[in-house]
User: Which sequence fits this backbone?
């Protein structure tokens, strides 16, 4: 789509495009990195490099931002990821470094894309918003818990309630200020479809 926008002449010379990705810890790599999803992520990074080359001639740029684990429809469906996220949230909240979607993207823009010096990149040219998640103290703690977590101790050593709250909010449940007991009319006219 960047090629189409460029061909149509609608891109600013200094356009910046960012694709979001996730790498995560070794515990999730068999599915997240080594499988089909990992191949798609590899293709994303290769595509980003091609787009960066094409945009660079006019002063534009393209980046991959490796973001922190968050609760999404996709992450909820991938085996072991909800367990990992539950353990992660608990530790990051204890350290006061937990971010949900909006907070991490605000940090992406303020600390990287909007900074005077430009984004800080890793050795592969990626922006790493997962830096707090991947800190040694966080990952060492999760690796230790990974060996002993079970159904009985998960509520104590993980943040299963926080995970559940985020999951329900994806679908419009558990939101403050909503009266879920109120009668609603499910047949609502949509003016643009009339």
Assistant:
């Amino acid at each position: 789509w960047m090629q189409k926008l460029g061909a149509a002449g609608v891109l600013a010379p200094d356009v910046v495009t960012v694709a979001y990705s996730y790498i995560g810890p070794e515990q999730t790599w068999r599915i997240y990195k080594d499988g089909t999803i990992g191949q798609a992520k590899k293709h994303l990074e290769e595509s980003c490099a091609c787009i960066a080359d094409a945009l660079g001639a006019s002063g534009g740029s393209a980046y991959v931002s490796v973001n922190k684990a968050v609760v999404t429809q996709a992450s909820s469906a991938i085996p072991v990821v909800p367990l990992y996220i539950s353990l992660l949230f608990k530790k990051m909240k204890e350290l006061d470094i937990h971010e949900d979607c909006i907070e991490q993207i605000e940090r992406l823009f303020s600390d990287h894309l909007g900074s005077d010096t430009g984004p800080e990149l890793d050795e592969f040219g990626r922006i790493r918003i997962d830096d707090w998640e991947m800190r040694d103290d966080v990952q060492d703690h999760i690796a230790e818990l990974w060996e002993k977590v079970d159904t009985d101790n998960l509520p104590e050593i993980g943040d299963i309630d926080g995970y559940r709250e985020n999951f329900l909010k994806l679908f419009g449940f558990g939101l403050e200020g909503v009266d879920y007991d109120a009668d609603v009319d499910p047949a609502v006219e949509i003016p643009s479809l009339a």
User: Anything to note?
Assistant: Residues 36-56 form the longest helix (21 residues). Residues 75 and 81 are 6 Å apart (CA to CA).
